[in-house]
Amino acid sequence: MVWVAAIAYFSAGCSSNSERNAGQNIAKTDTIFIENMQFVPSQISIHKGDEVIWVNKGIVGHNVTDIESQSWTSGNIEPGSSWKMKPTESIQYFCTIHPTMKGSVTLIE
């Protein structure tokens, strides 16, 4: 009986992309780390309603800024700090302090 309860408990928290595509639109949070002067991973795909959080694990400040028009920015993200947003469209971004640091988030509708 204990095994059945344990299996039911752990199974309840598991879901797959096929379940999500079948109508379960449960928003999730994706994490991008800022470390070693790069965004890790540099490219991700998310679903509408998902949130992205950038966590600075480096030793200097960075930011996350729209690469095309710089119409939005995180402001300075100090070491040990984070910033989050819910993209409403696919985005490409970079760090204005270190312009070689670039990344993208592709929105899947």
Can you describe this structure?
The chain is an alpha/beta fold. Helix content is 15%, strand content 35%. The protein has two helices and eight strands; from the N terminus they run ααββββββββ. It has helices spanning 2-12, 17-21, and strands spanning 29-35, 38-40, 43-47, 51-56, 65-66, 82-85, 91-94, 102-108. Residues 1-21 have low confidence and may be disordered.
CATH class: Mainly Beta
Shape estimate: globular
The rounded distance between the terminal residues' Cα atoms is 41 Å
Provide the residue-averaged pLDDT. Answer: 84
Radius of gyration: 17 Å
The figure for the number of domains is: 1
CATH superfamily: Cupredoxins -  blue copper proteins
Number of strands: 8
Q: In the CATH hierarchy, what is the architecture at level 2?
A: Sandwich
> Taking strands numbered 1, 2, ... along the chain, how are they ordered across the largest sheet?
2-1-4-6
H/E element order? HHEEEEEEEE
- The CATH topology turns out to be Immunoglobulin-like
Unreliable spans are 1-21
Largest pleated sheet: 4 strands, mixed
Q: State the share of residues found in helices, binned by percent.
A: 10-25%
What's the total helix number? Answer: 2
Based on secondary structure, the structural category is alpha/beta
- Proportion in β-strands: 25-35%
Oligomer: single chain
Mind sketching the topology for me?
Elements: H1 2-12, H2 17-21, E1 29-35, E2 38-40, E3 43-47, E4 51-56, E5 65-66, E6 82-85, E7 91-94, E8 102-108
Parallel strand pairs: 1-4, 3-8
Antiparallel strand pairs: 1-2, 4-6, 5-7, 7-8
